[in-house]
Specification:
The protein is mostly beta strands. It is built from one helix and 21 strands. The strands form two sheets. Strands 11, 12, 13, 14, 15, 16, 17, 18, 19, 20 and 21 form an eleven-stranded mixed beta sheet that branches. The termini are far apart.
Amino acid sequence: MTSQTPSAAPLRADCIADSAGGLTFDVAAHDHTGAAHLLLRRHDADAAEDTVGLPLAPAAEGRLRAALPSSVSLPEGRWDAYARMSDGVPRRLVPGVTDLRSLADRTPSGLLGHVAVRIPYATRQGNLTVRSWLRAPHAEATELHLADDGLTVRGRVYGTPLAAGAHAELRPPPGTDEDGVRRLGLTADRAEFRLRIAYDALAPGRWDLWLRPGGEPGPAVRVARLLDDIADKEPVLVFPRTRVDTRHGPVEAGPCYTRDNDLSVSVTAQADWRSRPPGTGNM
């Protein structure tokens, strides 16, 4: 019987987020001596520029600390966390205690022209990964108000002013018979905006919400909700849907977040029970 060498125990890292958008990693490494680094590698990427290295320095007995300040650029994506000790072999980190309380009430100044967000989370395999967003400019959805016939979105724009011609756009699903985008008016108060989406004008599919803060000549900015502690909103924030009659037939519609925490409206075609023969019912 061939014996196998047991694999090394995983290294555990506690994470603390600060209100400026930085992260601190405390790695439990009781027996370590010598140089060490924390590595963040962009998921499914191999290029050297897709790795960010941070020195791990002694912080307390048996612990090493690395800091990722908001001033260090971390391009948008998912970054897997590793520790490289003196043996030079990167080891995957697993999450320990995570303190993200400062993210819940965070309001960036926007003075740098961009918003940087980093949220550490546990993958399905139990490993530590950091979800990073870097938006310049950024349109944050702060409140959603649902009604039977539509959706009202309140938000705030960072990194650019709201000009006189500012408006929003709903971009249609690929392959629909719709021509172009749906332009939506909005009301603005300094950096705050408010807009309404009527469901009865939308064909089935997923409609993506964009902001045009400078009007037609300016940039198109994807509306998203990033300024909290939820790394993946798609499976967590599930909203009620409402049934609406449209020229495309009856649909169910409601807001949803994408895998990137961008805000969209999902419209799904429904069978028209009124057209069924008597006695068939809704099974």
